UniProtKB/TrEMBL annotation:
The lineage of its organism: Eukaryota, Metazoa, Chordata, Craniata, Vertebrata. It comes from the Eukaryota. Keywords: Membrane, Transmembrane, Transmembrane helix. One of its GO terms (molecular function) is neutral L-amino acid transmembrane transporter activity. GO terms for biological process: D-alanine transmembrane transport; D-serine transmembrane transport. This is AAA1 protein. The chain crosses the membrane at residues 16-39, 51-73, 79-98. It comes from Pitta sordida. The keyword Membrane applies.
Length: 133
């Protein structure tokens, strides 16, 4: 959220679209690479949709062209996009990777989560709630 607020202060919509475009290209490509890796390492797992590997490989070729062209044409914007992505690394380590957190940190994370759910009108599904009856 903090990174988004800082980016919004830039005020230039074109630059903001370029940041998001590069981040989207990168995430889509990593997702397709993950699909290919899973197809090779775990070929027996259930997949609701199974496509020929030629389709993701073709997509990756176009993806690589777009990513390389973006890096070549606007390296500063791409670098800022990478920095924006990397702002999530400390959040991951604080929230997910660090298992033995003090109780005060857990309470802080839970209160921020609750506040965010209330702000966005989102409720985490609970087991055995009133809707099950």
């Amino acid at each position: 959220c903090l990174a988004t607020l800082i980016i919004m202060l830039v005020g230039d919509t074109y630059t903001l679209i370029n940041y998001v475009s590069f981040i989207n290209y990168l995430c889509y490509g990593v997702t397709i690479i993950g699909l290919i890796v899973l197809r090779w390492k775990k070929p027996k797992i259930f997949r609701p949709i199974k496509v020929n590997l030629l389709i993701p490989m073709t997509y990756l070729a176009f993806w690589a062209f777009l990513l390389i062209f973006s890096l070549y044409s606007e390296p500063i914007v791409c670098g800022i996009g990478l920095i924006i992505i990397l702002t999530g690394v400390p959040v991951f380590f604080l929230g997910v990777y660090w298992r033995n957190k003090p109780k005060c940190v857990n309470r802080l994370i839970e209160s921020v989560t609750c506040w965010g759910q209330k702000l966005c009108f989102v409720v985490y599904p609970q087991c055995g709630g009133a809707e099950d009856e």
